[in-house]
C-alpha cells in the first residue's frame, strides 16, 4: 500500500486512554493518524510510541473558533480526511445541586458543541470525496441513569441523538456516522476508583455478564471495524462495548 493511498484519520483526545488505543489500532492497520489533545507531552509520547504513521497537533477544542483552521491544517499537511473519531471528552462528578451553570456549560462545550463543530468542518471535506466515516464516543451514561454526572449524561445522550440525525442526513452522501458506548474500561483511574469503593466495584461486576472490565483495545477494535468495508451497511448505530453491562441484571 503506497503512502498516498493510505486512509487518513483524526482522533481527538488521542494522546491517552481509549483515544490512544484507537490511534494505535489504526496505525497497526496502516491508517495514517493525526491525534489532537491539549497535553503536548502526552502527544509527543504517543507519536514516539506509534511511529511514522502518527502525527500530533496540539489544540484546545473548546476554542471553537480555532477548529476550522485546525481541520484545514490537517488537510494541507496530510490530504483528505477519511475518518474522524470524536473521542475527546471531560467528566465531572458532583452532586446535582452543587453543579454550577458554568461547570455544566463547560462539559457540554467539550463533549457536545466541540464534537458538532469538529464534525461540521470535517464533513465539508468528506462531502468533496462523497465518502467518509465518523465515530462518536458515547457512554453508558446515555444508556441509563448514573448519579452525580448530570452534565456528562446530558452531553452523551445528546451525542447519541446527534449521531442518528447526522447519519440520516449524511449517509445518502456517502458518509457513515456511528457511535460507540464503552462500558467499564480499564485504566489506572477507573481501577483506583473501584478499588477504593468496594460496593461500587461489586455492583459493576455484578451487572456485567462477562464479569470483567474491558480494555481500551476492545473499544479500538470496534472503532476499526466501523471504519472498514465490513461495516459499509452500518450507520446511525450506538454500539455498546461493555461486556453486556447495559443489558445485565
From TrEMBL:
<feature type="domain" description="Ketoreductase">
    <location>
        <begin position="7"/>
        <end position="183"/>
    </location>
</feature>
<dbReference type="Pfam" id="PF00106">
    <property type="entry name" value="adh_short"/>
</dbReference>
<comment type="similarity">
    <text>Belongs to the short-chain dehydrogenases/reductases (SDR) family.</text>
</comment>
<dbReference type="InterPro" id="IPR020904">
    <property type="entry name" value="Sc_DH/Rdtase_CS"/>
</dbReference>
<protein>
    <submittedName>
        <fullName>SDR family oxidoreductase</fullName>
    </submittedName>
</protein>
<dbReference type="InterPro" id="IPR036291">
    <property type="entry name" value="NAD(P)-bd_dom_sf"/>
</dbReference>
<dbReference type="InterPro" id="IPR002347">
    <property type="entry name" value="SDR_fam"/>
</dbReference>
<dbReference type="InterPro" id="IPR057326">
    <property type="entry name" value="KR_dom"/>
</dbReference>
<keyword id="KW-0560">Oxidoreductase</keyword>
Amino acid at each position: 500500500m503506497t503512502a498516498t493511498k493510505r486512509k487518513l484519520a483524526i482522533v481527538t483526545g488521542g494522546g491517552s486512554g481509549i483515544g490512544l488505543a484507537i490511534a494505535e489500532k489504526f496505525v497497526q492497520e496502516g491508517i495514517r493518524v493525526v491525534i489532537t489533545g491539549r497535553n503536548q507531552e502526552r502527544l509527543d509520547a504517543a507519536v514516539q510510541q506509534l511511529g511514522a504513521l502518527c502525527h500530533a497537533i496540539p489544540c484546545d477544542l473548546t476554542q471553537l473558533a480555532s477548529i476550522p483552521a485546525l481541520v484545514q491544517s490537517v488537510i494541507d499537511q496530510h490530504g483528505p480526511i477519511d475518518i474522524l473519531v470524536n473521542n475527546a471528552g471531560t467528566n465531572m462528578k458532583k452532586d446535582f445541586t452543587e453543579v454550577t451553570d458554568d461547570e455544566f456549560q463547560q462539559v457540554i462545550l467539550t463533549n457536545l458543541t466541540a464534537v458538532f463543530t469538529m464534525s461540521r468542518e470535517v464533513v465539508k471535506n468528506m462531502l468533496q470525496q462523497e465518502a467518509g466515516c465518523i465515530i462518536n464516543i458515547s457512554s453508558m451514561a446515555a444508556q441509563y441513569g448514573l448519579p452525580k454526572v448530570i452534565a456528562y449524561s446530558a452531553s452523551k445522550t445528546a451525542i447519541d441523538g446527534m449521531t442518528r440525525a447526522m447519519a440520516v442526513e449524511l449517509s445518502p452522501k456517502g458518509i457513515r456516522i456511528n457511535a460507540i458506548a464503552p462500558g467499564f474500561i480499564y485504566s489506572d483511574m477507573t481501577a483506583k476508583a473501584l478499588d477504593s469503593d468496594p460496593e461500587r466495584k461489586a455492583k459493576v461486576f455484578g451487572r456485567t455478564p462477562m464479569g470483567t472490565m474491558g480494555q481500551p483495545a476492545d473499544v479500538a477494535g470496534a472503532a476499526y471495524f466501523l471504519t472498514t468495508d465490513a461495516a459499509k451497511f452500518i450507520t446511525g448505530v450506538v454500539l455498546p462495548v461493555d461486556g453486556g453491562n447495559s443489558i445485565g441484571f
